[in-house]
Write the structure tokens for this entry.
Amino acid sequence: GENVEQHPSTLSVQEGDSAVIKCTYSDSASNYFPWYKQELGKGPQLIIDIRSNVGEKKDQRIAVTLNKTAKHFSLHITETQPEDSAVYFCAASWVGGGYNKLIFGAGTRLAVHP
Amino acid sequence: GAVVSQHPSRVICKSGTSVKIECRSLDFQATTMFWYRQFPKQSLMLMATSNEGSKATYEQGVEKDKFLINHASLTLSTLTVTSAHPEDSSFYICSAGGAGDTQYFGPGTRLTVL
């Protein structure tokens, strides 16, 4: 089955710096890769996702890149702000004709210091 | 965007009692909903996949007789923790499949069993 590894487990940056979180997956059939942000005591919030037919996707300060050959994908946050502080989870799934379960990484705790 | 609600947000119960958690998709129909549990500082662990009008599919190691799931309509799924014990204390989160392949998560329910 699919396995997703996520690094680093914790990340501390200064406000305005960039943050990068990396994930690798094991199943080459996976074709959908979402990223979620979870604040303390709340449910995960989808912030961006990418499908296997696309190599990069950007939404304002957030971007995700996908390397299918190497089976890894990354989240890039530019111009970080204190409100970006949260736990970020990557996930992988195979989607086709219905909803399939997401396999999550272990999470990255991001702290943005003013 | 798609909104998923959960009720209650937190519940405290005595050992041996049963607790029901509701998950609703507010502005879309969800044929598939997922139930997760999350322990402090850990990732999300999928418990079961719930399809409207059919029996839920449980992940390995999850007791189906203890965690009863009902998905009676396209907007409502319920999780009942039967004969709860302190080790069942956790953060329970549901997600619902929205448009396309995306899963949207509820805000979570914190269960504390005394």
The mean pLDDT of chain A is 93. The CA atoms of residues 15 and 114 of chain A lie 5 Å apart. The interface with chain B takes residues 32, 34, 36, 41-46, 49, 51, 89, 93, 95, 98-99, 101-102, 104-107 of chain A (CB under 8 Å). The first strand of chain A starts at residue 4 and ends at 7.
